[in-house]
Amino acid sequence: MPYVYPIPNLLPQELVAEINNRIQSEPDAWVDARHAVERRKGAKSNQELAADSDLRMQISDAITTVLRDYQRRESLLFTFLAAPSKIGKFRVSKTGKGGSHGDHMDSNVMSRGTAEEVRADLSMTIFLSDPESYEGGELVIDSDMTFAPSFKMPAGGAVLYATNSIHRVNRVTAGERLAAITWIESEIADAFMRQMNADLLQCLNAVSQNAEQNPQLSTFLTLKLEKIRSNLQKRAR
User: Fold this and answer.
1) Would you state the torsion angle of the CA atoms of residues 61, 133, 32, 5, taken in this order, to the nearest 10 degrees?
2) What distances in angstroms separate CA 226 from CA 75, 116, 166, one per listed residue?
3) How confident is the model at residue 204 (pLDDT cuts 50, 70, 90)?
4) CATH code given to domain 4-186
5) How far is CA 70 from CA 18, 78, 104, in A?
6) Is the pLDDT of residue 88 over 70?
7) What's the angle, vertex CA 70, arms to CA 68 and CA 76, rounded to 5?
8) So what's the pLDDT on residue 9?
9) pLDDT digits 0-9 by tens, 50-84
């Protein structure tokens, strides 16, 4: 399966609550999202905060600030997995009852020709709604596969995935689904190398979590894995 990584609690609950409160206080900030489809592979029926709205910019900046807070374990995990050289401006979407986004693949370059242009190596969806507040609305990745995984993360949770994956948002059958979506240009441009980097990080995490059982072996493996990862990153740039 191509690159897919869920990141629970990527955003702190305080920020999620603040974003939702701001959204509720400006009910007229939404526009039809169909104009934003850059590669029309599937029907899209939802709304987005207007691209030039102050609210959208403030939410995007607040999320990006958290992602660059390397004191947070979740933000550090995102940084290790994505190796971001550029994080695109977030789009904020609202999908009500009957809304969905059919099977599609995001463009390799998003917002082409604008100040927000970014080479899209990775896509990321951050869930902003309590999953119990709506029905349906799952993010399905590699939706062209028979056993495609689907995600409905708790508010503040995210899914990081390869932009070239075909994916969709299932129809919302009740309630309202809020999400923030962005695209990331990685320092590791090669998808194969990026996957290897992520796999090595998982090994490093496993070693560090079991360090007390065999400290000498843990130290040796950690140094070797860090050496491999460092050399891999040098070759990938």
Assistant:
1) 50
2) 19, 34, 32
3) confident
4) 2.60.120.620
5) 21, 10, 33
6) yes
7) 95
8) 96
9) 988 999 999 999 999 999 998 999 999 999 899 99
Spans of all domains in the chain: 4-186, 191-236
Look at residue 39 in the predicted model and tell me its pLDDT.
46
Predicted TM-score (pTM) of the model is 0.86
In 3D, which of 202, 232, 206, 233 has the Cα closest to residue 217?
Answer: 206
CB 16 within 8 A of CB 156: yes
First CA to last CA across the chain, in angstroms? 24
